[in-house]
Amino acid sequence: MAHQLSGYVQELSTALKRRDGRRAAELLSLSSPAGLIAHQLAAQGRPVPSGPLSALPDPWADIAGALLRCLVAQNNGERALACKEYREGCAAALASLLNADKGTESEWLIPLALGAAEQLKQLSQLADEELARRGAAASQLSECAISLQNFFRGLATSKSSQAKKDASVAVVCVMMKVYFRLNAINNCKQPLQQIELNRLFDNAKQAHKVTLRYYTGRLAAYDEDFQRADEHLSYAFEHCAASQTNNVRRVLRYLVPVKMLLGVLPSAALLRQYGLPEYEPVRQAVAEGNLALLLATLEENQIRFIQSGTYLLLERLQLLVLRRLLRRVAAVHAQLNPGKAHQVPLALLEAALALQGISKDPLELQCLLANLIFRRYVKGYLAYKSRVLVLAKSDAFPQLSAVQLADPLAT
Predict the structure, then answer these.
(1) Integer CA distances (angstroms), 117 to 123, 126, 203, 405, in order
(2) What CATH number does the domain containing 67 carry?
(3) Largest CB tally within 10 Å, which of 161, 212, 357, 407?
(4) Burial level of 339, CB count in 10 A (0-12/13-18/19+)?
(5) What is the pLDDT of residues 108-154, one digit of tens each?
(6) What is the pTM assigned to this prediction?
């Protein structure tokens, strides 16, 4: 074991002297040869020896020691401790090195920083899972977010290194994953604005572009800007590698509800291809104006939709489904009473809902119709005394692009 540790230190020392960031990143990764050394230390119950590590220059001896302690803790099943060792010993030191030099001298550290950002996220997630099982507060991912901000600051604020600024995009991708997992969505806006301000998107790798568009689209949907959400999520869907089926499915989980809110229904074949059967009854409900089917699907899949973050999006489809049903009722009424085609008795809509097993009291139904009119799903007005919906003689059911999807009264 002593021989292996000396050989590892020698390899790392050579990489550092050559400023070979890629090789140094490999040697300081969780899957490096240090893993075998840590396994032996853990099996023997021995601490990490400091002697061989002292051959490394400052602060690399401390960084390598922290990595070994992290890996030993992992071998012992102590995930929270492993995360703490890595965050405080490896990630913090690397971020300090980046922030200490805003120029090009530290560009060789970029692979190390990007690797550390991703590995810290992984360790933090595992640590929080362990803490949650113990019944303790899961705080490691929150601490990870702070560390990622330090990495981002060290890269994005470089005065003369375009390579660092370009690399900051990769860190932002990791930050988005962490913020959404923490439900700290508002924290996403500042780093995204920084990327836009520095015009870093165009130079980013395709995989990073897709990731950024995916999270920007989700953020837009959260802000009820569904046109913008459609734009970004559509980009992510169209440019995501076809071989990455899970990633395509992840994008579609948000793109499909957004498209439906804008009046575009997915094909049944698309839903089958990417394994989204839970959306098929939703698609049918919107197409047929079947409010009962939509409500039953939302109830049946409530936990799944909430966990994926799509429940509130899908719940918004209720007004769209009601509009579709109203349009069908109005068409039948116009055929039977052409002279009063634009005066739709509310009793007809009540009867159509009753056929679906839905009972609405008169006041509740009027409120729903008033909401449809207010949000511009329908043009017309309610004649309360006669209980009639008077539709506009032209364009009574406008294009959904004109609909007020966001809450007009929200602040």
Answers:
(1) 10, 15, 20, 37
(2) 1.25.40
(3) 212
(4) exposed
(5) 999 999 999 999 999 999 999 999 998 988 899 999 999 999 999 99
(6) 0.87
